[in-house]
């Protein structure tokens, strides 16, 4: 909480103050934050944009797997809701004019087109706002990992609030992870290598971080890095529909013998945010968002010689 209060994100996010006088060994009591869970807030915005049609809102917010399958042609995901709305609208008879008279059909039809355009613009606005909030969340955690060395390793949707004052509320630091300076630097080198896209450099950075595999194949180490710390594209390009099948493939080809604890918790954070992105029909590439913080960590390490 203190780190966030003195960070560049102090006016954008809020971590509640623990009320120690009310806390026990089995119960944590914190100040009340005025807002909704982010996923619920976005769902409510969709319902409003669709004139109260909750069923259609649920259809737009598809489960992760279906969203991934339908979203491959647009990496940005900016117009995914719009495209999906068009598909649904073509099948949704609630929007068609049921009037039989030609003149009335023309009048009602024109109003229907205007309403459809209004809905589409509302969906695009919601998509943009959702993307902005998702990027903020990823940036905050990148800052925590590479600058503070302390981060929440369990940022699932239930722990994220959309506050009434416009800020994002971050709850439940029960799975907070502390990183040693050398762990931060080693992770930063992996992120930098992923951003540069050189397979051998990524594999070398993974070895420096502490990863060990049975055959020490550079391609498998690089693919593991991309899956852990970057995006779902790595397994999609290889023809896998889900991360479980992809991980089974990696383990079969070159079993991982050592996976450093620090990497597990950072990877969990990366994968959770990508899952939120898929739910919101947004493509997420973690290395793009975390690159500035990884670069700053390495530059600071060079200057202060934190690692030997």
What does this structure look like?
- The protein is α+β, with helices and mostly antiparallel strands and 308 residues long.
- Helix content is 59%, strand content 7%.
- The protein contains 13 helices and eight strands.
- The protein has a four-stranded mixed β-sheet with strand order 1-5-4-2. A two-stranded antiparallel sheet has the order 3-6. Strands 7-8 form a two-stranded antiparallel ribbon.
- A hairpin with a 4-residue loop joins strand 4 and strand 5.
- The two termini are 30 Å apart.
Give the low-confidence spans: 64-79, 88-111
Secondary-structure class: alpha+beta
Outline, from the CA principal axes? globular
The percent range for helix content is 55-70%
| Strand order in the sheet with the most strands | 1-5-4-2
- β-strand percent reads 5-15%
Order of helices and strands: HEEHHHHHEEEEHHEHHHEHH
Major β-sheet annotation? 4 strands, mixed
Which value, in Å, is the CA radius of gyration?
Answer: 23 Å
Mean pLDDT: 81
Please report the total strand number as a whole number.
8
The N- to C-terminal Cα distance equals: 30 Å
Count of alpha and pi helical runs: 13
Question: Mind sketching the topology for me?
Answer:
Layout: H1 2-5, E1 13-14, E2 35-37, H2 38-49, H3 54-60, H4 64-70, H5 80-91, H6 102-148, E3 150-152, E4 160-163, E5 168-170, E6 176-178, H7 181-196, H8 199-209, E7 212-213, H9 218-229, H10 233-237, H11 243-253, E8 256-258, H12 261-279, H13 286-304
Parallel strand pairs: 1-5
Antiparallel strand pairs: 2-4, 3-6, 4-5, 7-8
């Amino acid at each position: 909480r203190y780190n966030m209060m003195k960070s560049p994100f102090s006016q954008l996010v809020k971590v509640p103050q623990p009320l120690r006088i009310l806390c026990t060994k089995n119960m944590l009591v914190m100040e009340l934050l005025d807002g909704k869970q982010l996923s619920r807030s976005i769902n409510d915005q969709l319902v409003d944009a669709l004139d109260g049609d909750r069923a259609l809102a649920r259809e737009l917010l598809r489960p992760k797997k279906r969203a991934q399958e339908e979203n491959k042609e647009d990496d940005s995901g900016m117009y995914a809701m719009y495209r999906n709305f068009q598909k649904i609208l073509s099948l949704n008879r609630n929007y068609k004019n049921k009037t039989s008279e030609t003149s009335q059909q023309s009048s009602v039809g024109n109003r229907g087109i205007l309403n459809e355009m209004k809905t589409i613009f509302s969906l695009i606005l919601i998509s943009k706002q959702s993307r902005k909030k998702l990027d903020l969340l990823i940036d905050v955690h990148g800052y925590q990992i590479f600058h503070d060395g302390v981060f929440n390793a369990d940022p699932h949707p239930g722990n994220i609030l959309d506050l009434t004052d416009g800020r994002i509320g971050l709850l439940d630091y029960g799975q907070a992870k502390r990183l040693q300076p050398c762990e931060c630097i080693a992770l930063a080198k992996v992120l930098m290598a992923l951003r540069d896209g050189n397979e051998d450099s990524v594999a070398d950075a993974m070895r420096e971080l502490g990863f060990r595999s049975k055959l020490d194949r550079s391609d498998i180490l690089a693919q593991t890095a991309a899956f852990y710390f970057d995006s779902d594209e790595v397994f999609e390009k290889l023809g896998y529909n889900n991360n479980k099948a992809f991980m089974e493939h990696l383990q079969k080809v070159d079993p991982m013998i050592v996976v450093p604890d620090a990497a597990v918790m950072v990877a969990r954070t990366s994968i959770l945010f990508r899952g939120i992105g898929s739910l919101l029909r947004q493509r997420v590439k973690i290395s793009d968002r975390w690159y500035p913080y990884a670069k700053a960590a390495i530059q600071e390490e060079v200057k202060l010689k934190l690692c030997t």
